[in-house]
Design a protein that fits this description.
Elements (H helix, E strand, L loop, with lengths): L1 H10 L1 H5 L8 H14 L16 H12 L3 H21 L1 H5 L1 E6 L1 H4 L11 E6 L4 H61 L1
Antiparallel strand pairs: 1-2
Length: 192
């Protein structure tokens, strides 16, 4: 009896413990492939794969294209653009810190005798002491904001892709279940 139980466990261990990679839904497998490509593991080159129009892969790609036209993605792109504009502004912030000033003496303009004893003009430059540190900090802050917004956009894209592919897999399973129920019902009606 123990030998039969052991043989049963060995034969069905894969089904008891979980799915193998070959039995995973395509959407999950694609996400695993994307993860492996990001981490540097060896995966199939997607560019070499030809997509047949009307095939399941073509449908999934169209669904992903549609979900990436989401308003949240557009907002993420706008945030990245705003961060890049702030970076350009931070590059020129050094110029806004320097002040130049000058004036002419009123006696010089009116050709007065007192113009000989007073300065004819005054020039001045005002440079704050923290101008370079402040500009450098603004540039680093702007760079980090760009990185944060880019990462948020990528995270949103991955989340939306996974969500739409999961929903598509659920749709396929429900459709197959309805087809099986339809076949069973046709058999029952024929037998009746």
């Amino acid at each position: 009896m123990n030998k039969i139980l052991l043989a049963f466990l060995i034969l069905f261990a894969n089904n008891i413990t979980g799915q193998s990679l070959g039995k995973m839904p395509d959407s999950v497998r694609r996400l695993v492939d994307e993860y492996n490509s990001v981490t540097g593991k060896n995966t199939i080159n997607k560019k070499l794969k030809k997509v047949v129009p009307g095939s399941e892969d073509d449908i999934k790609e169209k669904l992903i294209d549609l979900v990436l036209r989401n308003t949240q993605i557009k907002a993420a792109n706008a945030n990245i653009t705003i961060a890049e504009i702030a970076r350009k502004k931070a590059n020129s912030s050094l110029l806004s810190s320097v002040n130049l000033g000058g004036n002419l003496n009123e006696f010089v303009i009116s050709n007065s005798q007192l113009a000989l004893f007073t300065p004819k003009y005054n020039l001045g430059v005002s440079i704050p002491m923290d101008v370079f540190a402040k500009a450098k900090a603004e540039k680093k802050t702007a760079d980090q904001v760009i990185l944060i917004n880019t990462a948020q956009k990528e995270q949103l894209e991955i989340f939306l892709k996974a969500k739409v592919l999961t929903q598509y897999e659920n749709y396929k399973e429900a459709k197959a279940q309805v087809e099986f129920q339809k076949i069973a019902m046709e058999d029952d009606v024929a037998a009746y």
